[in-house]
C-alpha cells in the first residue's frame, strides 16, 4: 500500500472503499447504458429510478451473456491480435520504468485502424453483414465482455503472484487494491504487450468500430443518417485516428508508464470504453436528431479544432524531448526545466520539462482539449436527457483527479525541479482559471 499512501491523503477511502465500490458497481452500470437506450427511451435517470423503485422490472430487461457473444468477441479479439502481430511496423522502445525496465511496442496502429474501418464500412455498405445487429445485441455483448474482463483481471493477479513479469510487478497485500489497480506494469502474453493489445487494439479499436455500427443501425432503422450522428461519428473517428497516429506518445502516457494493469485499465478498456465512451452514439442510434447547418458546422469545427490542439500539445512535448530541446515551440526556442530523477535501481537520469507553448499555459493543458472534444461529439445528442453527457461528466472527474495524481507523482519524481515548473506554470488544466 505504500503507493496509495504516497499518492492519496485518505488511503483507506481511496485505496479500499472507493475501489471496492467501483469493482462492484461499474460492471452492471456499463450494461445499464444499453438498457437505458433500448428499454427506457434513452432516459438514464428513469433507468436509475427503476433500479430503486422496481429492481425486478429492471432485472427483467437486463440482458444475459451468451455463447453467440463469446463467439463474436473471440473472433474480434483474434482478428485484432492477427493485425497487431502480422502488420509491419517500426519497433518503439519506450522510456524507462520506475524500476529501470524498458518495454518495446510495434507501431502499426494506423494500418490496423484503416483496415478495421474499411471492413466494417464495406461490410455494412454492401449488406454483406448487418452492423446494426451489434446495436440490437449490444446488451448481450456487454454482459459477456464484462464476465470475460473480470476473469482476466483475476488471472492477471494470480499470474503476478506465480510468475511476475519483471521487477515492476508487485503485490501490495491489499486484495481490493491489487485487483482494482493491478499488480503488473507491463504484462506480456503470446509475444505481445497486453497493454498495447487491450488498451489500443481492443478498447480504442472497438470504440471506433462500435460507433460506426451504431451509425449503420440508425441509418437502417430511420431511413438515413441524421447530420447530428454523422458529425458526432466523424469527430470520434478523427479522434481515434489521431490516437493511432500518436500511438508512440501513448506509450509514454500515465496509463502505460504508471498505472498497473488491473481492473482500472484492463476492465476499463474492455468494458467502460465500449459502453460509456460510445454512449452518445448509442443514445443517438435510436433518437436521430438533425441539427441546423450552422449548429452542425460549429460542432464539427469545435471537434476538429480540439483534436488539432490535443495533437499539437502532445506533439510539442514529445518533440522537445526527442530533440533534447533543439527545436522551436510556437516559433521560439523552448523554455525548459532540466530535471533530474532517480530510478528504483539507484541510477540518476535527466529529463526535460517544457514550460512554453501549450505547456506554458497549464500543466495539463491537453486535458482541456480532451474535454472540449468530448463535449463536441456529445452535443448532437441534444438536451432532452442527461444520457449523452455521462461521458463528459465522467471525463471531467477523471481528468481533474488524474491531474492531481500526476502532479503528486511528478513532485515525488522530480522534487524541486517540479516545484520550479509549477512556479512557472501555476494553472493545472484551464489557463487563468484552474
Ligand atoms: P500526459 O500524456 O499528459 O502525461 C503526463 C506525463 O507527462 C507526466 O507524468 C510527465 O511524465 C510528463 N510531463 C508532464 N509535464 C510535462 C512537461 N511540461 N514537459 C514534458 N513532459 C511532461 O498524461 P496522460 O497520460 O493522462 O494523457 C495522455 C493523453 O491521453 C492526453 O492527450 C490526454 O488528453 C489523453 N487522455 C484521454 C483520456 C480519455 O479517457 N479520453 C484519459 C486520460 C488521458 P514523465 O516526466 O515521467 O515522462
TrEMBL record:
InterPro entries: ERG24_DHCR-like, Sterol_reductase_CS
EC number per UniProt: 1.3.1.21
Gene Ontology annotations for the cellular component aspect, listed alphabetically: endoplasmic reticulum membrane
A matching Pfam family: ERG4_ERG24
Subcellular location, record wording: Endoplasmic reticulum membrane
An individual GO BP term: cholesterol biosynthetic process
Signal peptide: none
Family: Belongs to the ERG4/ERG24 family.
Protein name, per record: 7-dehydrocholesterol reductase
Organism: Porphyra umbilicalis
Amino acid at each position: 500500500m505504500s503507493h496509495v499512501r504516497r499518492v492519496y491523503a485518505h488511503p483507506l477511502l481511496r485505496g479500499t472503499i472507493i475501489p471496492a465500490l467501483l469493482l462492484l458497481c461499474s460492471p452492471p452500470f456499463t450494461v445499464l447504458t444499453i438498457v437505458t437506450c433500448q428499454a427506457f427511451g434513452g432516459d438514464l435517470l428513469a433507468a436509475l429510478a427503476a433500479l430503486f423503485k422496481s429492481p425486478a422490472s429492471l432485472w427483467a430487461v437486463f440482458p444475459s451473456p451468451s455463447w453467440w457473444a463469446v463467439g463474436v468477441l473471440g473472433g474480434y479479439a483474434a482478428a485484432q491480435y492477427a493485425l497487431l502481430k502480422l502488420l509491419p511496423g517500426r519497433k518503439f522502445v519506450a522510456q524507462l520504468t520506475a524500476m529501470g525496465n524498458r518495454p518495446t511496442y510495434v507501431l502499426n496502429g494506423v494500418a490496423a485502424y484503416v483496415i478495421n474501418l474499411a471492413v466494417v464500412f464495406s461490410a455494412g455498405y454492401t449488406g454483406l453483414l448487418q452492423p446494426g445487429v451489434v446495436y440490437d445485441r449490444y446488451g448481450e455483448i456487454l454482459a459477456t465482455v464484462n464476465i470475460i474482463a473480470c476473469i482476466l483481471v483475476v488471472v492477471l493477479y494470480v499470474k503476478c503472484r506465480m510468475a511476475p513479469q519483471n521487477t515492476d510487478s508487485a503485490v501490495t497485500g491489499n486484495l481490493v487494491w491489487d485487483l482494482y489497480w493491478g499488480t503488473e506494469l507491463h504484462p506480456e502474453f503470446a509475444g505481445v504487450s497486453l497493454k498495447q493489445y487491450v488498451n489500443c487494439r481492443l478498447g480504442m479499436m472497438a470504440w471506433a468500430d462500435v460507433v460506426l455500427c451504431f451509425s449503420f443501425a440508425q441509418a437502417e432503422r430511420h431511413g438515413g443518417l441524421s447530420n447530428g450522428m454523422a458529425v458526432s461519428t466523424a469527430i470520434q473517428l478523427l479522434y481515434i485516428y489521431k490516437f493511432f497516429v500518436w500511438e508512440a506518445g501513448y506509450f509514454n502516457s500515465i496509463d502505460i508508464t504508471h498505472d498497473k494493469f488491473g481492473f482500472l485499465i484492463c476492465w476499463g478498456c474492455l468494458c467502460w470504453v465500449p459502453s460509456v465512451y460510445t454512449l452518445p452514439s448509442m443514445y443517438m442510434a435510436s433518437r436521430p436528431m438533425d441539427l441546423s447547418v450552422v449548429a452542425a458546422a460549429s460542432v464539427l469545427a469545435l471537434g476538429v479544432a480540439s483534436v488539432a490542439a490535443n495533437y499539437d500539445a502532445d506533439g510539442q512535448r514529445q518533440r522537445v524531448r526527442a530533440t533534447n530541446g533543439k527545436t522551436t515551440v510556437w516559433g521560439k526556442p523552448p523554455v525548459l526545466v532540466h530535471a533530474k530523477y532517480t530510478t528504483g535501481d539507484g541510477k540518476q537520469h535527466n529529463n526535460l520539462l517544457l514550460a512554453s507553448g501549450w505547456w506554458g499555459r497549464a500543466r495539463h493543458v491537453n486535458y482541456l482539449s480532451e474535454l472540449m472534444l468530448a463535449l463536441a461529439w456529445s452535443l448532437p445528442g441534444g438536451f432532452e436527457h442527461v444520457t449523452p453527457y455521462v461521458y463528459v461528466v465522467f471525463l471531467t472527474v477523471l481528468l481533474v483527479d488524474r491531474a492531481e495524481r500526476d502532479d503528486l507523482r511528478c513532485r515525488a519524481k522530480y522534487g524541486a525541479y517540479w516545484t520550479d515548473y509549477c512556479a512557472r506554470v501555476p494553472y493545472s488544466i484551464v489557463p487563468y482559471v484552474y
